[in-house]
Amino acid sequence: MHISEGVLSLPVLATGAAVTVAGTMIGLKKIDSEKLVTVALLSSVFFVASLIHIPLGPGSAHLILSGLMGLVLGWAAFPAILTGLLLQSILFQYGGLTVIGVNTATMALPAVLCHYLFRSLLNKGGKSMTVGAFLCGALSIGLSAMLTAFALSFTDDSFIGAAQLIVYAHLPIMIIEGFICVFTYGFLYKVRPEMLMATQE
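RE: above sequence
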């Protein structure tokens, strides 16, 4: 879901940068020494998972795992995703430095939103936890695709077709990430529940 450099308008770039700066500052304040290892681990998982890209016009489709990051990290998903995107931009030229604010915002903001929307279900355990984890994994991708589409559409009407393609292409990814989130969250709930303290914040 990386948007390439030289595509977006200045107002869209500025808005994305502002959201990312604010989210990252909040996220950094939420990270303590006990959570630092978890943030680093999920940032590296995000880095690897999103390396395999399917080009879609000015954007791309790939696994993101932002829903899982939102569930486990809360606001700390912002600096975790920003770090992964920064390394991808420098090492592999995915996205770019000028669009890193927009790319981070489109992935991290839905992750944080889903964290707060579904954490009450996660705290109930059982079927409610399964439903909450799936919705968080799936809807975070759907919202990210929509934000990416909006960023392209607000830049130029000629991108509307590509924006629609990005949304449609991420529908199967929503289902896949929903199940990944269910299985991973359920596993952590059983073996490392201390990693899920963000759902109690």
